[in-house]
Amino acid sequence: MMEYIFFNAELAERFAEFTRLIGAGCEERNDNMGLIVAVPEDLDEELDNRLDTYYAHLLDEQAEMVEEAEPGLKHVTTINITLADGQPCAIRIEPAMMNRLMSCLSIDEIHQFATTIAHSVENPDNRPLCQT
């Protein structure tokens, strides 16, 4: 399933309705990071493009809502990981970069990617790649 995350219930519901309208269907669930609307990964390219375009539009609306509610607020997203010593760590990512990541990776894949990078920073391996 391809997952789309929202932080506003109305926008998540509008996206879910749109998926049903274009025949993609979806599953909705709450996640500790937000509201998830998941669609099948085997959709044709046209449907994928329509969903991505509509999702980008809704993210823009979401950003406008936040700006109206809290003018001057710095927009940032985070990925929460646990370091090797058990300490929690929030990795801050600019929203535009997070949107690009989410256009091709699931939330779980992004989390796994960030955790792998953190592990590599904590435990550097400077051997040549041909020796790993």
Please provide a written account of the structure:
By secondary structure, the protein is of the alpha+beta class. The chain has two domains: 1-72, Alpha-Beta Plaits, CATH 3.30.70; 76-124, no CATH class. It is 47% helix and 21% strand. The chain has four helices and five strands. It has helices spanning 9-21, 45-69, 95-102, 107-122, and strands at residues 2-6, 27-31, 34-39, 77-82, 88-93. A three-stranded antiparallel sheet has the order 1-3-2, with helices on one face. A two-stranded antiparallel ribbon has the order 4-5. α1 (9-21) packs antiparallel against α2. The radius of gyration is 17 Å and the shape is globular.
What is the architecture of the largest domain at the second tier of CATH? 2-Layer Sandwich
Number of helices: 4
Which strands sit side by side, in order, in the main sheet? 1-3-2
The biggest beta sheet, please?
3 strands, antiparallel
Proportion of helical residues: 40-55%
The end-to-end distance, rounded to whole angstroms, is 32 Å
Compute the CA-based radius of gyration: 17 Å
SSE pattern: EHEEHEEHH
Q: Which CATH class of the largest domain?
A: Alpha Beta
Query: pLDDT below 50 for ≥5 consecutive residues: which ranges?
Result: none
- The fraction of residues in strands falls at 15-25%
Number of domains: 2
Going by helix content, strand content and strand pairing, the class is: alpha+beta
Rounded mean pLDDT is 85
Shape: globular
CATH-defined fold name of the largest domain: Alpha-Beta Plaits
Number of strands: 5
